[in-house]
Structures are given as structure tokens and as C-alpha cells.
Amino acid sequence: MTGVPTRPGAGLTRRTVGTGLLGGIVALVTTGCTESSTETSTETGYRVLVYSRTTGYRHDSIPAGVEAVGELGAEHGFAVDATEDPAVFTPEDLRRYAAVIFLNTTGDVLDDAGRAAFEGYINGGGGFVGVHAAADTEHNWPFYGELVGAYFAQHPPVQPATVEVVDRTHPATAHLPTRWTRTDEWYDYRTRPTDARILAVLDETSYTGGQMGQPHPHAWCRTYAGGRTFYTGGGHTIEAYAEPAFRTHLLGAIRWAADQSPAADESRSPAPADRDATG
């Protein structure tokens, strides 16, 4: 994984998010332990939390990812809070959210109290979406390992590859072709997810450096410990968050994890674009 190394707690400076296209996002970024919130939208049907703390490598695409989720919320009727403050992980705060998105988190990003609160949130029916380096997070927390489904092992350089969409009945993949060619950083994982619904796999013959063999999982979901969990391996590059197909992939993941998918999304037949396509 490429990125900028950072010290624990880096990036927790006060900033303002939520102008222009980001009318649906709230900044919950802190200096020390004092929370600051900038609200720029009215309350919507449900609310999600984007968490992007890093204590290992830091992806320069994090701001683009936070912005993209904020835009999706503004466009599709849900509110978005964004934070890198682990103090937000309390039972009282987490119950506000239909889903929590770990967006390119790395390393250990919660303390023991935060882990306990997050486990309770999932046990109570909360939703989780892991994006890309969420698989390189909390390697020593068994509950999280089961939640995310698999841990990052290695990756080759950023390059084009073909994603084979093997389940197009899910809201995150219904819009995609069966072969989806795009450029990203392609993760190998230490293991394959167990008891998961595999939505997409990588065609290792379409790029160089993949070492998992087939099947090479790339996106998956399942119910776990009372909640819903979704993971996608995409989202390393800044450009990914401007791709319409990838943004719709994220939107479907968020809606599904939040248990807010339109009924038509859950049951729709695969889209007719059954051919190769780029993102």
C-alpha cells in the first residue's frame, strides 16, 4: 500500500467541511478532545459516519473519499458525518448512525473503550462498510478481523485490472458489467473471507503481481454478530472517487449496510450491460 506515513493521531486538526457540493456532510474533526461540528444541511432520513483515522500509512485519496461520500449523501437523502476522532466511538454517539464507514483507515484506530462500543453497535444491528485499507486496520482485534472479512497481505503497483462481478443482484453491483475494467491498487489478502457473499473477484490474468490465485475476492458482504458488513478492495486512488461506477458501488454498499436499500435494488435482475466496460 502506498501512501504517506503518519504518526498516531495525525490529521486531527479542526477543519470545516460542508460547503458547495458537500451540503450533506458534517465535520467532526478534533483538536485534542474537544469536538467541533459544522452542520450545513437539514436532518435527513438516516445518518452515516465516515471514519478515516490512520496510524500507519495515510492515503492521499482520503479527502476525495470523504468528499465523495458527502456528495452521495446530499444527492441521495442521507446525512454524513466525517471524523478522525476515536472519542466519537461511544454507545451514545454510535447509535445515531445507520452505518459506519472505515475509509482507508490503517493501523490501530480505536482504544479498548472504542472497540467495546463498536462491538456493541454491530451487535445491536449497526452497519459497517470497509473501503480499501480498512483491511489493513486493527490486525490484532479478532472481532474486527471477522467484521472486515480478510486482512491485507500485499499489493503490486497501481495498474488497470479486470474485476469479475459474480453477483449482480446486490445494490452495490447491480449496475456493473460482468467484467469491470478500471485502475486501482489491487490487494491480496492473507485469507479468503469465510461465510461471506462474494460479489466480485479479480481476474489475476488481467494484471501483474496478484498472488492469491483464484478465486481472488475483491468485494463481499454478510451479516455478522447482529449487523451488516460490506467490504470493497477499491478506493486507493484519488481518481476512483470521481468514477461514476465506483461511486454507485459505494452508494449501494452504504445503503445495504444501513439497511436502507430501495426494495427494487435488493430484488432487481442483473443489468443488461453484460459486457466488458471501464469504470
Q: Helix share of residues?
A: 10-25%
Topology order in helix (H) and strand (E) letters: EEEEHEHEHEHEEEEEEEHHE
Strand order of the largest sheet: 2-5-3-6-7-14-13-12-9-10-15
Average pLDDT, all residues:
84
Class of secondary structure makeup? alpha/beta
- Backbone shape: globular
Termini separation (Å)? 21 Å
* Content of β-strand: 25-35%
Detailed description of the structure:
Helix content is 20%, strand content 25%. It is α/β, with parallel strands linked by helices and 279 residues long. It has an eleven-stranded mixed beta sheet with strand order 2-5-3-6-7-14-13-12-9-10-15, with helices on both faces. A two-stranded antiparallel ribbon has the order 1-4. It has a two-stranded antiparallel sheet with strand order 8-11. Helix 3 (112-123) links the parallel strand 6 and strand 7 (127-131). It is globular and about 45 Å long. The model is unreliable at 1-25, 29-43 and 263-279 (pLDDT under 50).
Secondary-structure blueprint of this entry?
Blueprint: E1 4-5, E2 25-27, E3 46-51, E4 57-58, H1 62-76, E5 78-83, H2 91-94, E6 99-103, H3 112-123, E7 127-131, H4 142-148, E8 152-154, E9 159-165, E10 179-184, E11 188-189, E12 197-203, E13 217-224, E14 227-232, H5 244-257, H6 263-267, E15 276-278
Parallel strand pairs: 2-5, 3-5, 3-6, 6-7, 7-14, 10-15
Antiparallel strand pairs: 1-4, 8-11, 9-10, 9-12, 12-13, 13-14
